Amino acid sequence: MSEELKQLRNQIDTIDEELLLLISKRAGLAQQIGKIKKSGIIYRPEREAQILTRMQEQNPGPISSKHIKQLFIEIMSVCRALERPMSVAYLGPSGTFSEDAALKRFGNAISTLACDSIDEVFRAVESDSANYGVVPVENSTEGAVGRTMDLLLQTSLIICGEIQLAIHQFLMAQQSGLSHIKKIYTHPQSFAQCHQWLKVNLPQISDIAFVTTASNAEAARQAAADAHAAAIASKRAAELFGLSICAENIEDDPKNTTRFLVIGKQLVDASGKDKTSLILSTSNHSGAIYKLLEPLARYGVSMSRLESRPSRAGLWQYVFFVDIEGHQQDQKVAAALVELRDKAAFLKILGSYPVT
Ligand SMILES: O=C(O)C(=O)C[C@]1(C(=O)O)C=C[C@@H](O)C=C1
């Protein structure tokens, strides 16, 4: 070993020891905070969002802000776990993008509960089998996830946060290369997202049998048991089922993103950069929705999403899912909400939470 290398490693050893002491000291403080929290609610999304923003703003480099964020998410994850272990339900099985989203938000020091359906995720949180749930709500190419919206309307759960996840698809099989592939297991949505790539890159495509699966992770599981098959799934699924990557990032739209919601029972305090989600309905006369939303414009509250969904209360009757900028405790948002409540036939505040 060269003298220079030895010296650099010695410096790293000293810093690691300092880091270890500092992280342990931080964890001790979190434990003290845990004891003070009489409400028993450990997870504070607004505080975590503030810490992540501050650390990224103060990041001196050379580490990227994205990686600084990841590091601090893991540090907070272990501190949180020391205060009290936390469980998060998600749309399983293990290896799905929903699991990726849950770990992206909460870090790895959580216990996860894989559910068979979106309904089951809601039920797990409602019955306290899990502290929080992570469910998909919209995809940049496929649009809204109707079941999640229906359950937000029907249940008393509220939104505690959102997670944006870039969806990268991988082609995986027992062995690398493309020429041996005779069958591809895939979830229909993933297939739709990679259609063009498959056509261009697999000359044998007309001889390939496509087999539909209920999830990406299930596709990977099936391919792991079939030497001539491949699967379209996430990188995590390849790791989980011991598959080789045949091709990476095969999605046709590189910006393909899914937005997930964190659902729970707790009201979240303001972080300084928040959004509020509402469900509204109005009578069916002309200009009704325009008149209903007018207070938002008057109080200068911007709307970032407006989506309609059948209300199931009557034929051609709709509810509107509206996201607005700001927290329900912000003065102008609170004032606009008072007027909306007056005008709307129905208003449900789904929650205020930090913007990501
Ligand atoms: O500040 C708190 O309330 C804490 O419990 C500490 C801490 C952290 O590690 O910084 C941990 C969990 C919370 O979600 C927020 C922050």
From TrEMBL:
<dbReference type="InterPro" id="IPR002912">
    <property type="entry name" value="ACT_dom"/>
</dbReference>
<dbReference type="InterPro" id="IPR036979">
    <property type="entry name" value="CM_dom_sf"/>
</dbReference>
<feature type="domain" description="Chorismate mutase">
    <location>
        <begin position="1"/>
        <end position="87"/>
    </location>
</feature>
<dbReference type="InterPro" id="IPR002701">
    <property type="entry name" value="CM_II_prokaryot"/>
</dbReference>
<dbReference type="GO" id="GO:0004664">
    <property type="term" value="F:prephenate dehydratase activity"/>
</dbReference>
<dbReference type="GO" id="GO:0009094">
    <property type="term" value="P:L-phenylalanine biosynthetic process"/>
</dbReference>
<dbReference type="InterPro" id="IPR036263">
    <property type="entry name" value="Chorismate_II_sf"/>
</dbReference>
<protein>
    <recommendedName>
        <fullName>Bifunctional chorismate mutase/prephenate dehydratase</fullName>
        <ecNumber>4.2.1.51</ecNumber>
        <ecNumber>5.4.99.5</ecNumber>
    </recommendedName>
</protein>
<dbReference type="InterPro" id="IPR045865">
    <property type="entry name" value="ACT-like_dom_sf"/>
</dbReference>
<keyword id="KW-0028">Amino-acid biosynthesis</keyword>
<dbReference type="InterPro" id="IPR001086">
    <property type="entry name" value="Preph_deHydtase"/>
</dbReference>
<keyword id="KW-0584">Phenylalanine biosynthesis</keyword>
<feature type="domain" description="ACT">
    <location>
        <begin position="277"/>
        <end position="354"/>
    </location>
</feature>
<feature type="site" description="Essential for prephenate dehydratase activity">
    <location>
        <position position="258"/>
    </location>
</feature>
<dbReference type="InterPro" id="IPR018528">
    <property type="entry name" value="Preph_deHydtase_CS"/>
</dbReference>
<dbReference type="Pfam" id="PF00800">
    <property type="entry name" value="PDT"/>
</dbReference>
<dbReference type="Pfam" id="PF01842">
    <property type="entry name" value="ACT"/>
</dbReference>
<comment type="pathway">
    <text>Amino-acid biosynthesis; L-phenylalanine biosynthesis; phenylpyruvate from prephenate: step 1/1.</text>
</comment>
<dbReference type="GO" id="GO:0005737">
    <property type="term" value="C:cytoplasm"/>
</dbReference>
<dbReference type="InterPro" id="IPR008242">
    <property type="entry name" value="Chor_mutase/pphenate_deHydtase"/>
</dbReference>
<keyword id="KW-0963">Cytoplasm</keyword>
<keyword id="KW-0511">Multifunctional enzyme</keyword>
<keyword id="KW-0057">Aromatic amino acid biosynthesis</keyword>
<feature type="domain" description="Prephenate dehydratase">
    <location>
        <begin position="87"/>
        <end position="265"/>
    </location>
</feature>
<comment type="function">
    <text>Catalyzes the Claisen rearrangement of chorismate to prephenate and the decarboxylation/dehydration of prephenate to phenylpyruvate.</text>
</comment>
<dbReference type="InterPro" id="IPR010957">
    <property type="entry name" value="G/b/e-P-prot_chorismate_mutase"/>
</dbReference>
<keyword id="KW-0413">Isomerase</keyword>
<keyword id="KW-0456">Lyase</keyword>
<dbReference type="GO" id="GO:0004106">
    <property type="term" value="F:chorismate mutase activity"/>
</dbReference>
<comment type="pathway">
    <text>Metabolic intermediate biosynthesis; prephenate biosynthesis; prephenate from chorismate: step 1/1.</text>
</comment>
<dbReference type="GO" id="GO:0046417">
    <property type="term" value="P:chorismate metabolic process"/>
</dbReference>
<dbReference type="Pfam" id="PF01817">
    <property type="entry name" value="CM_2"/>
</dbReference>
